[in-house]
C-alpha cells in the first residue's frame, strides 16, 4: 500500500464515530428498545472486519504453529469456576448510594471525584486548565460540574498519589479513601456505602430443576485446561504444544463505558501453550530474536515512571527483563500479528504487570497495550499462568493432568515412604479407614520426614484428619516410615502454561482509530485505511452509469473476483462517481474498478487506490491480476501496477 | 473423489462413536467433573470440520448472494423476547414425580411408557419382538424392564394412535393421557403431577442491580430483525435482500439425549430474507428450477402417510405444493449446500410442517430432514415468518420497520380522515389531550367509517379511551370526519421474512454418519470419507522413517502446502506407515504424501487417496499441483492424476 499521508488532520473521535454509525460498523444492541449498555451489534462491515481479523489470527497462530484448536461451551457449571478461583476472585468493588440506590464502581467513583477536585484546584490557582476535550465531554460522567476550589498543597499531592495507584487498591483501601476524603455521590452529595465485592460473572441455572448453578464463562481458557489430557493425546503425547480457542466470553461490568473497549459480551482468541517448567526455551526463538519491541517494565512503573525501553526481544530475554524464550517468542509474534492487521507500531507497547495487579493465577504477565483516544488500553495479555489451573482442577477431580517424560538417564531418588498395614486399618477405623489412608499417602516428603522422626522418638504418630472427630494415633503395628532409594525412568510433571489472550473487540476498535483519517482540507471526507488483508470488501466495482451495456461487464468482473476469492461489491447506484468513492473510502475498500464507455470499446477499466486516489488503466485481466497480487497482501501498489498506464482523472 | 465403495458393512453407531472419541472430534464438556448433559466440546478435528462447514456456508450463501452478515449479542433483555413471543411460548411440558422430585419431559415420558407396553404386548402375544438394537440400549431410558403383558386390541390401537400423534399434543392433552392410561414414573411407579410449562430459555440478570432480566437468545433471528432499518439503509434501500448471522444459541432442554442432535448450546447459521409480500418471486429461480427434491407434503402426513414426492422445485412451486419462488429457491440452495459438504442425498428429504406443529411465528415451514441412526432429524428449517416479527417489534417500540417503495404510477386512494381541532383539545382534556388524539389517529379505516356514521346521525361520537375514567364525547366543534381522495406516490409495507435456519451441530453429526464406513473385512478399520472441502486436514505428510535426511523434505512440503492455503500435517511418529494411514483414515484426511529414500535421490513422492487407497508417484511439484486441484473441490482424482505414474505398494 502507498499508505495514508503522514501529515493528516488531528484525530477527532466524533468524526470517526459518525462514520462508524453511518456505515453500520457497529451500533448499540437493542437500540430500538433503548439499548443495554455494554452490548453492541456488529453490522456488515464490522462483522466482516472482525471475521478477517479472526481469520488472520487463525493463520498467524493456529496454522503457522500447528496449534490444536478447540471449541468449548460457554455455559460452565459452578464447580469448575469455583475451583479455578473465579467464583471467589473475579470481582470488582461497587458501592451504593443508600438513598437513591445508584450503584458506582468504587475505583471509578474515587477517580472521577478526585480528578474533578484537582481540576477545580487548577482553576482556583489561575493555572491554564487544559480545555476540556470533546472526548471527555462524550464520556458519561458522574461529575457534572467542576467547582473552583483551591486545595492545600499536601492534599493535592495526596490526590495525585491516589490517582497514580488507583488500579492497585483493595476494597478496604478504597473504602478508607472514600471515608477519609469524603467522596460522595457527585450528583446528589449523598453518602455512599462501603464498597462490597460484585462478582462479574453472569449466573444462570442449567436444567429444569434449577439446582445446577452455572455461569457464562469469563474466559475460554478453562475449557481448554479441562481437555488437557485429550489434547496431549491428540498431539501424540509430544511437548511442548498449544491449544487455542476463539469464542465469546462474558463479564457483567458494573457500569460499562468507553464503547467497544469495555463490554459485557466479547470475542476472545486465546492460546494455551504448555511447556516443561524446567525448559521454557522455544525452538523458533531465533526467527524473531532481532525484532525490536517497546517495553515498559515493572521496576520502571514501581518507580512511578513510564519510560519505554526499546530493545530486541533477544536482548530482553538475555537480560531477564522478559522471563523466558517462550514468553518472549509470543510477545514478538503478537507484535507481528498486530502490525499485520493495521495497528500503528508507534502506538503499541508491552507493559509488564506489577505484582499487585496480577490476576490470581498469573506468575508473570505482559500486556500489549495500544494507544487510542481513550489512552493506553490492554488489548492482548500474555501471562505465564504457571501450573496453577491444571493443578487445581487435578486436585479437585482426582484426575491427573500431567505429562510423562521418559528420562534419557534413569534418575535415582531418595525419598521417605510410608508402608501401611491395610488389613489392620479396616477393623480399627471402619468407614474412616480410607480417609486415614488418603491422609497418609498425600503427605509431602517433608511431612513424611517429620512423621518418621516422631515415630522414631515416641513409637507412634498422632494427627488430625478432616471429617473425623478424634485424633488418630498409629504405632509401628500400623505403619512404618523409611527413607528409601528408588530409580525413576519417567519424569512426571504438571506443565506450565503461557497464555496469549486477545480481546478481538478492543483490537478491532484500535485498528479503526489507527486506520481513520480525513482528506486534507475536508474533515467530513473520512477514509479508513485498512490493510487489504482485513478490509471488509477488497474491491468496489463502479459502472460509470446505469447503462445496460455496462451491467454485464460489472457482473463478469464480480464473478471473476469471486472465483479468485476476493470479496467485492458493485455500486450501481445513481450517485456520482465521486460520491460513490467517498462512500467506499468510509468503508475502507482499498481498490475501485471503474467501468466506462471506453470499456465497451476496448475492454479496458480503471483501477483506483483508496489512500492516494492514484489511478491506472489496463485490460480487465491485467487489472484483476494486479488486484489479486495486492489483496493477499504480498505486492505493493507500485509493484503490482508498474506495467499499467497511469490514468489522470478529476475524481471529485 | 473416487468415493467409498457402495458395498460396505452395515453402519454401527458404536464403531463410529469409538472413532469420534479416540480422535477427539467431540466429547462431553466438563467430563473430568462428571459432565453436564447437553453440553459438548469440539476437539481439534471436530472444531476444524465445523469451521470448514461454516466457511462453506458463508461462501455458498452470504458471498454468493451478497447477504449482509451481522454479529449480534447473545444476551437479550426480557422485553425483546417478551415481544417476540418467546417468553410465553418457547416452552416444553414437564411433569414431576411428587415423591422423588424427578422431572420428566411429558411427551417423552408418555412415548417411552407406551412403547414399552406395546413391546410387552408383543412378547405376550408370542410375536417375534425385534431384538433390541445396540442403539436403543445406549439411550438413557426411563423404562428399564419390559413386562410381558397382553393388551386388549382396542387399547393397543389407542396406544398406536397416541404414538403417531405424539408431537402434536398440548399440555392439557398430555395430562389427560397420563391420567387416563395411568402413566407413572417407570422406575418407582410413583404418580406424576400434571404437566406444567417449562420455558426453555436460560435466564440471567444484566448489570449490578439484578433488576434487568435477560435471557440467552434461543435464535439469532431477533438480533437481525431489530437492526432491520440499518440493514435496509446499508443495502441502499434496495429490496429484496437478506441478512445472515452465524453464532451460538441456547435451549435449556429438560432432558437432553441423542448426542449432538439435542444440546443446550449450539451453533446456528440463520438467514433472514426480506421480501415484498405482494411479490415473492426470486430473480435467480431459473438457475435452480430443474433440481429434483424429495418432498413430504403436509397433506400426505395428515393422511397418516410418509410417501415421498420427487419432483423438480420448478414443478413444486408451479403446483403450489411449495408456496412461492423464494421459498423454493432456498429449498434448492439448501439441498445444494448439504450435498456439497457430504450429506448423502438419499438420506435427505424436505418435510412440510403440519399446521399444529408450526412455531408461533411461522406462516409456512419446510424442514430439511436428514436420516441418521437416530431417524429422520430436522437439520435445517425454512420458514416463512410472514411479517410477524417486524410487526410486533414495531408495535412495541413505536419504531417503523417498513420499506418505502416509489410507485411507478401514483395510486389514488379513498379513505376516511379525521380532522382534529387541536387548540380546543388542550382546554377540554388537559393532560389527557394527547391520549384522545392518539386514540383518534390510530383508528382503522373501518372504525373511522363507523364513527363518521355516528357523527352524522347523532352529531357527536362517544367512546372510551384506555387510562381515562370517563367516556369521551366529541361533537363537530372538535372533530370532523370525511371520506377523501388522495394520491399516493409511495407504497409503505412491512416485508415478509423467509428464514432458512441451519443447526450446524446436527448437520455436522449427519455428515459424520454419512461419511463413516469401515474397510471390507475389518470393522475396526474405520474411514471418514469427508469431501476435501470440509475435511479437517487435507494432506498428511508421512516420512517413511525418522531419518534426518527426510525431515527437511517434510518441512519444505508443509511450507509449500501452507503457502497454497491447504491445511496439512506431518506424522513423523515411529508407527508403521500402515498404522499412520489408518489413524488418518479415521481423521478423514483425503490425501497422503509419502516421502521415502527414493525421494532423496530423485525428488519424487507418492500420493495416496484415502477411499480407494490408490497411489501415484511424481515430482513434488506435480503432486502438489494435483493436491491443489483436488483440495478446492474442482478436479476429480482421475483428472488430477492422469499424468502421474500409478504406484503399486502393499499398504498394510
UniProtKB/TrEMBL annotation, chains A, B:
One of its GO terms (molecular function) is transferase activity. One of its GO terms (cellular component) is mitochondrion. Its main location: cytoplasm. Its EC number is 6.1.1.14. It holds the Pfam family tRNA-synt_2b. It catalyses: 2 ATP + H(+) = P(1),P(4)-bis(5'-adenosyl) tetraphosphate + diphosphate. It is found in: Cytoplasm. Residues 149-543 form the Aminoacyl-transfer RNA synthetases class-II family profile domain. Belongs to the class-II aminoacyl-tRNA synthetase family. NCBIfam families: glyS_dimeric, PRK04173.1. Homodimer. PANTHER family: GLYCINE--TRNA LIGASE, GLYCYL-TRNA SYNTHETASE/DNA POLYMERASE SUBUNIT GAMMA-2. This is glycine--tRNA ligase. It comes from Nadsonia fulvescens var. elongata DSM 6958.
Amino acid at each position: 500500500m502507498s499508505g495514508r499521508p503522514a501529515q493528516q488532520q488531528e484525530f477527532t473521535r466524533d468524526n470517526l464515530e459518525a462514520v462508524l454509525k453511518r456505515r453500520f460498523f457497529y451500533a448499540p444492541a437493542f437500540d430500538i428498545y433503548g439499548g443495554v449498555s455494554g452490548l453492541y451489534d456488529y453490522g456488515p462491515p464490522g462483522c466482516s472486519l472482525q471475521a478477517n481479523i479472526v481469520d488472520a489470527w487463525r493463520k498467524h497462530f493456529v496454522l503457522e504453529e500447528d496449534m490444536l484448536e478447540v471449541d468449548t461451551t460457554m455455559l460452565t457449571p459452578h464447580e469448575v469456576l469455583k475451583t479455578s478461583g473465579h467464583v471467589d476472585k473475579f470481582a470488582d468493588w461497587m458501592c451504593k448510594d443508600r438513598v437513591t440506590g445508584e450503584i458506582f464502581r468504587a475505583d471509578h467513583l474515587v477517580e472521577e471525584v478526585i480528578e474533578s477536585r484537582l481540576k477545580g484546584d487548577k482553576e482556583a490557582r489561575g493555572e491554564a486548565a487544559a480545555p476540556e476535550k470533546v472526548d471527555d465531554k462524550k464520556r458519561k460522567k458522574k461529575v457534572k460540574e467542576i467547582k473552583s476550589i483551591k486545595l492545600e498543597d499536601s492534599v493535592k499531592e495526596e490526590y495525585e498519589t491516589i490517582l497514580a495507584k488507583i488500579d492497585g487498591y483493595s476494597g478496604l483501601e478504597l473504602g478508607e479513601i472514600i471515608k477519609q476524603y469524603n467522596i460522595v455521590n457527585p450528583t446528589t452529595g449523598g453518602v455512599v456505602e462501603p464498597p462490597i465485592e460484585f462478582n462479574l460473572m453472569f449466573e444462570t441455572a442449567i436444567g429444569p430443576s434449577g439446582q445446577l448453578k452455572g455461569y457464562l464463562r469469563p474466559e475460554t481458557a478453562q475449557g481448554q485446561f479441562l481437555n488437557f489430557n485429550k489434547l496431549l493425546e491428540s498431539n501424540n503425547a509430544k511437548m511442548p504444544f498449544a491449544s487455542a480457542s476463539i469464542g465469546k466470553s462474558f463479564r457483567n461490568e458494573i457500569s460499562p463505558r468507553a464503547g467497544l473497549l469495555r463490554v459485557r459480551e466479547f470475542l476472545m482468541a486465546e492460546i494455551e501453550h504448555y511447556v516443561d517448567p524446567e525448559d521454557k526455551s522455544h525452538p523458533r526463538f531465533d526467527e524473531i530474536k532481532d525484532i525490536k519491541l517497546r517495553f515498559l517494565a515493572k521496576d520502571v512503573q514501581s518507580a512511578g515512571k513510564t519510560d519505554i525501553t526499546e530493545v530486541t526481544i533477544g536482548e530482553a530475554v538475555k537480560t531477564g527483563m522478559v522471563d523466558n524464550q517462550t514468553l518472549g517468542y509470543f510477545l514478538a509474534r503478537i507484535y507481528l500479528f498486530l502490525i499485520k492487521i493495521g495497528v500503528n507500531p508507534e502506538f503499541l507497547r508491552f507493559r509488564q504487570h506489577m505484582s499487585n495487579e496480577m490476576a490470581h493465577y498469573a506468575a508473570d504477565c505482559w500486556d500489549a497495550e495500544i494507544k487510542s483516544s481513550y489512552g493506553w488500553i490492554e488489548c492482548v495479555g500474555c501471562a505465564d499462568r504457571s501450573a496453577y489451573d491444571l493443578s487445581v482442577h487435578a486436585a479437585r477431580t482426582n484426575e491427573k493432568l500431567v505429562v510423562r517424560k521418559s528420562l534419557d538417564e534413569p534418575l535415582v531418588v531418595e525419598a521417605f515412604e510410608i508402608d501401611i498395614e491395610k488389613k489392620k486399618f479396616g477393623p480399627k477405623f471402619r468407614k474412616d479407614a480410607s480417609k486415614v489412608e488418603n491422609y497418609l499417602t498425600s503427605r509431602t516428603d517433608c511431612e513424611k520426614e517429620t512423621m518418621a522422626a516422631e515415630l522414631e522418638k515416641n513409637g507412634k504418630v498422632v494427627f488430625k484428619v478432616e471429617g473425623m472427630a478424634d485424633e488418630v494415633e498409629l504405632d509401628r503395628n500400623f505403619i512404618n516410615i523409611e527413607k528409601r532409594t528408588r530409580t525413576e525412568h519417567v519424569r512426571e510433571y504438571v506443565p506450565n502454561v503461557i497464555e496469549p489472550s486477545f480481546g478481538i473487540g478492543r483490537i478491532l476498535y484500535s485498528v479503526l482509530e489507527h486506520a481513520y483519517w480525513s482528506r486534507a482540507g475536508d474533515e467530513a471526507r473520512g477514509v479508513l485505511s485498512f490493510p487489504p488483508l482485513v478490509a471488509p470488501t477488497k474491491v468496489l466495482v463502479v459502472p460509470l452509469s446505469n447503462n445496460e451495456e455496462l451491467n454485464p461487464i460489472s457482473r463478469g468482473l464480480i464473478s471473476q473476483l469471486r472465483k479468485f476469492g476476493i470479496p467485492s461489491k458493485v455500486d450501481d447506484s445513481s450517485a456520482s462517481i465521486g460520491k460513490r468513492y467517498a462512500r467506499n473510502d468510509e468503508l475502507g475498500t482499498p481498490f475501485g474498478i471503474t467501468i466506462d464507455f471506453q470499456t465497451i470499446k476496448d475492454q479496458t477499466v480503471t483501477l483506483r487506490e483508496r489512500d492516494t486516489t492514484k489511478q491506472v488503466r489496463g485490460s480487465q485481466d491485467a487489472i484483476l491480476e494486479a488486484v489479486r497480487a495486492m489483496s493477499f497482501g504480498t505486492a505493493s501498489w507500485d509493484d503490482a501496477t508498474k506495467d499499467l498506464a497511469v490514468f489522470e482523472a478529476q475524481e471529485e
